[in-house]
Amino acid sequence: MKSIFLSAVVALLIAASASHTAAQWHTELNYGSAFTTDRFHEFLPSAGFWNWQYQVRKEVNDRYEVGGSVAWSYFEHDFGRITRTGEAIAVTANTVHYTNILAFQFVNQLNLTDPGEAVPFLRLGIGAAHQSQQENVGLFSLGNSGWQFMLNPEAGVRIALRDDLGLVLAGGYSFLPESGGLLPTSFWSLKAGLSWSKF
Fold first, then answer.
1. CATH code at 188?
2. What is the mean pLDDT of each run of 10 residues along the chain (199 residues)?
3. What pTM was computed for the model?
4. Domain count across the chain
5. Would you call 17 exposed, middle or buried from its count of C-beta atoms within 10 A (0-12, 13-18, 19+)?
C-alpha cells in the first residue's frame, strides 16, 4: 500500500512539473500552528508550532482546482517528572511525548467566487501519513510508527498581492484514525502562506 501510494504521489508531482506550460498552476507554501483534540490531546496537550505544507494544484476552471500536497507536522509536550507505580516498584522520571507526521494528500479546492482581490475557498485533502508517536521516560523510549489514512478539510481565503502572487489564510481539521498501535490523531490548524500562479 505504501509503495503504491508513494508512486501515485510522485507521478502526480512529475505530471504537475511537466505540464506547467500547458495550463495555469497554483503553487502554495504555508506554515501554521495546530491544536490537538480528543485522545491525541491527552497524549500531546501542547499546541504544535511546526506545521509546514507544500501544494501544487491545477486550475480546471475558475472555480475548481485539483492537485497534491506534502506536509510535515511536529508536536511535543514535556510532562516534567512523573511517578509511575507498578505492582512492585515506583519509578520517577522526566516524561516527554512527541510525534512526527509526514503526510501525502490529493487536494481538491472549490473557489467560492470568480477570481478577484479576495477569493474564499473550501479545500479537501485525502491521503496517507506516516506518523511516529514516541514517549520518552527517563532513559527509556517507547513508541509506535506506521501509516494512517488522513482526511483534512479546510476553509480559507486567498488575498491577491499582485496578479501572480497571493496571501493565503486558512483553518482546517486533520483526522487520522487509529492504526497499528498508533493513537487516533486529530487537530485543528490555522495557517498562513503564499500562493503563486504560473502558466
1. 2.40.160.20
2. 51 47 81 96 94 96 95 94 74 90 98 93 98 91 94 97 94 95 96 90
3. 0.82
4. 1
5. exposed
